[in-house]
Amino acid sequence: MINDLKNEIESVKDLFFKEVRKVKSVDKFKIVKEQFISRKKGFLTNILKGLKDFPKEDKPLAGKLVNKLKIQVEEELEKLEKSLINKKEDSIDYSLPEFDSPLGRNHLLSYVKNEVEEIFIGMGYDIADGPEIETEYYNFTALNFLEHHPARDEQDTFFIKNFENRVLRTHTSPVQVRYMENNTPPIKVIAPGRVFRKDEVDATHSPVFHQVEGLLVAKDINFSHLKGTLSFFLKSFFGKSVDVRFRPSFFPFTEPSAEVDVSCFLCNGTDSHCKICKGTGWIEILGSGMVHPEVLKNGNIDPEEFSGFAFGMGIERITMLKYGIHDLRMFYENDIRFLNQFG
Amino acid sequence: MKINTKYLKEFIKFELDTIGLKNLLETMGFEIEEIVNHNGIDVIEVEITPNRPDWLSHYGIARDMYAKNPELKLIERKNKTQLKGFNNDFKIITENNDDCPRYSGCIIKNIKVTESSSEIKELLVSLGLRPINSIVDISNLILMTYGHPIHIFDLDKIKGNQINIRRANKEEKIKLLDEQNIELNENFLIIADENKPLALAGIMGGFDSGVTYDTKDIFIESAVFNPIVVRKSARKIGLSTDASFRFERGTDILCTKDIIEKTIDEINKSVNKTMNVDYFFDVFEKEFIPQKVIMEKTFPSKYSGIDIEPKESENILNRLGFETTDKNTYWEVIVPSYRVDIYGKQDLIEEIVRIYGYDNLNSVLPEVSTDKIKKWPVRELRRNIGQFLVNNGAYEAINYSFHKREDNEIFADEKLNIEIKNPLGLDFSIMRNSLIPGVLKNISTNINQSLKSVFLYEFGSIFALDNKEILQTNMLTIAATGLYNKNNWKTKDNIKWDLFIFKSVISKLFSRLFINVEFIRSDINYYINGTEFDIICDNIKIGTIGILEDSICSTYKIDDPVFIADINIEKVKEIKHEFKLKKWNVFPSTKRDFSFFIDKDKNYENIKMLINSIKPEKLISFELFDLYEGKGNPDDKISLSMSFIYQDESKTLENNEVNRIHDSFIEEMIGKLELTRR
Ligand SMILES: [Zn+2]
């Protein structure tokens, strides 16, 4: 009988302290108080009522035990009530606004460059760079641009005063030859960087822009490896659902060469007035091809033993397509209303 | 190049509509510019890559369409005229075979020059050409049909019964068909009679020898000129003609006679009778050796990654006009004379895959790994710096690499400028020698947008002449102006950027990189006097910090002070920090304070330097915690309060030991800096 009582007291005590810990408001406090020490149906009242059924000799001990619990409960409730009342007295309106803490942004072009780099780092590529002011040798000759061939006209070139044969590099491709000169196959490298073309500034032209070059040279590399690599990259960058198309093209430093398109991620070819693909369903993204044997030779690599592929893409171009930017000039105005949207 | 879809059908039979044709051309490698409708006929404008001059004609395109799809029937026109060389008193004299490897010419007399038929005129107009007269129009028609430029002279204007293909003399001049007068020299290849230039070879005919309605007798030229000579001359006079465009890219040396026959056929057709040929001669002295390529039969599959049967590859090459000889494991491939772009077996692969279809390429990830250890210190540095600055409120800017002269002038002598020979304009004429003007322009842009505060940084290359070489340096410039922190309901005051806040941010940036820097007073002319510091790490200057001169700010239309840190990333990347756990001191430290008056003209740097030179034992750090100027101080004095922390690595310091060290150290400071205790 006495043991049953002890158990009951213990479980009521446990329940009480469990409930008390949850109390954060006066309302809740009232409920808990009612629950335990209400005159009509509180747990404690119920136990006290039960005492009358105890044998006479056990009554004093039982009464003592119950009383002890009652005191504990009352003290705890009193303490809790006080702390709740005090809390209310110096309460603060924490819904007042937080403060503007200045936050900047990386430039969108840096962000995208990083996005591209990380995809290729994941595939095990190295990252390299070369000088922005190049020799004509690395910019053209080593890349199989014959000296008097019209292919050189395609890239309107800035020349440097007082320096024979120095140009602002028109593409990142010179890094291909520089890297081959200093490394032996297998080679896997990308080269992001700044390039220059003599174009007047407008919404789609800029005398300064950025490219990422890619180069892979190893044994038995073929044209289908190029397609596999670029498909993987383009799906990673633009989204899994884009399709990739190769079209024949020409670059002096690749043979065969391919222009690479992705399927229009805006309209998927369903909108004949689509702003991006103009209804063709395809968007031109980058140029690529198998490294021309002359270029391998210029990089001290034997084209009979090794083969490779190369590709180059404009960072501004892929950024504009992916992030819906329609005017190239925005990248270089550095207006914070633009900068704070990305990066 | 414009393709008249109706005219194209005279050379190849196809059922495709214009969109179908466009798609086919795209898979063949044409870049479609636009499609316009000219009087009911679709004209497709295509851009042709410089390696494919054989595509610069309707027949050339038809020939390639046939190779792509043999079900389309190629329509060959058999020449009615069959010429055989015969001499009379007229002569063609070639000075140098390299300049002009082949020259075919013929004379037709008693011709009546009229207007062309409306059919020919319409065709030419649809292709963007202006009809002139029946003879000139035929030369243009031949060009657009077969791609080989011909020129037709008025025979009466050719004196001395001879054509000379020679370099011009310095004294000679020519008035071209476009009425432009050109002073000639030995770099120009000309067509001349016995004494005067008649035409610029491969570029444009002369005004005086052109065919007009008065012309009776004509001389037809069909020749091949050296591409480099044509290109150099055309560039020299800034002219690009349909003829020079094709000669520069390379023409078919075997076609010149055939082209003259086709021209005569056209003339006969236009006058509706067979004209008598009065003279025909073909100067073709150096034997033409066609390009030969050896290709293993396994190579097409191996290089493309597609399974192509050798027979299929061979068929494709044959359809393209290549002759193949089977040599068991390889082919000997003879390149047709009109394919001036084919030299090696890789070129043949492009042809095979192009015809087989780029769409049939497989998509395979190469399994290639390298043992190159990949570490990119500058990338890591940029990432850490960028993250830090962005979290502290800075925006990254990217500017052009070009300056105008005045931008560069601020930072270095103009003798060190790297200038662009052919700039887009004066504002873009010099390679930047500092990133500061760029960020100042950006600040100005944003202030115009009524922004109260601008905090920017840029990573980029700057350029200068160094020992007669071009030096490219990777820099980081950080700039701040206006408000550092805007007021709010709790902190009522705006906090403006000042040099102390700015220095703190920069100092924290270097802490982030585990680089210990000191700011040492310096003398830099573009910063306000007294605000300029060198940023020093291990006695090496890695940058500067200061407040920009007002006059510079106002040049860029900025009113508020601009705080600049200009950091040389090449130097920063050399600084190495080794991460290795160091034991920390477990014994309690003891603090002593010292307050004193000091002359106003003694700056804090002197105190710092003195403490560092005295180096009291057990002193591990010191700090300025109060500064008071004004009321209550002796004249010209300021009051400073500093605290000094002492600690021993191996024991708890006794009070009297600290006192002994501290007192003698303070005595020394008082003596050397003429301080007074407060
Ligand atoms: Zn679309």
Please outline what is shown here.
By secondary structure, chain A is α+β, with helices and mostly antiparallel strands.
Polypeptide structure, described:
- The complex is a heterodimer of chains A (343) and B (678).
- Chain A is of the alpha+beta class.
- Chain A has two domains: 2-90, no CATH class; 108-339, Bira Bifunctional Protein, Domain 2 (BirA Bifunctional Protein, domain 2).
- Chain A is 41% helix and 19% strand.
- Chain A has twelve helices and nine strands.
- In chain A, the strands form two sheets. Chain A has a seven-stranded mixed sheet, sandwiched between helices. Chain A has a two-stranded antiparallel sheet with strand order 2-3.
- The longest helix of chain B has 19 residues, at 655-673.
- Chain B is elongated.
- The N and C termini of chain B lie far apart (91 Å).
- The model of chain B has no long low-confidence stretch (mean pLDDT 94).
- The structure holds zinc ion.
Question: What topology emerges from the helices and strands here?
Answer:
The complex is a heterodimer of chains A (343) and B (678).
Chain A: H1 2-22, H2 26-37, H3 43-50, H4 59-89, H5 108-122, E1 126-127, E2 133-135, H6 136-139, E3 166-168, H7 174-182, E4 187-196, E5 208-218, H8 223-238, E6 244-251, E7 254-263, E8 282-291, H9 293-298, E9 307-314, H10 315-323, H11 330-333, H12 336-339
Chain B: E1 2-4, H1 5-8, E2 12-13, H2 18-28, E3 31-38, E4 41-47, H3 58-68, E5 73-74, E6 91-94, E7 102-108, H4 118-126, H5 134-146, E8 150-154, E9 162-167, E10 173-175, E11 181-183, E12 189-192, E13 197-200, E14 204-205, E15 218-224, H6 227-236, H7 242-249, H8 256-271, E16 277-283, E17 292-296, H9 299-304, H10 310-319, E18 323-327, E19 330-334, H11 345-356, H12 377-391, E20 395-396, E21 402-403, H13 405-409, E22 430-431, H14 436-448, E23 453-466, E24 469-485, E25 495-496, H15 499-512, E26 518-521, E27 533-537, E28 540-547, H16 550-555, E29 562-568, H17 569-572, E30 590-599, H18 604-614, E31 619-629, E32 637-646, H19 655-673, E33 676-677
Parallel strand pairs in B: 6-9, 20-23
Antiparallel strand pairs in B: 1-4, 2-5, 3-4, 7-15, 7-16, 8-15, 9-12, 10-11, 12-13, 13-14, 17-19, 18-19, 21-22, 23-24, 24-25, 24-29, 26-27, 27-28, 28-29, 30-32, 30-33, 31-32
The site of zinc ion has 7 residues of chain A, from loops.
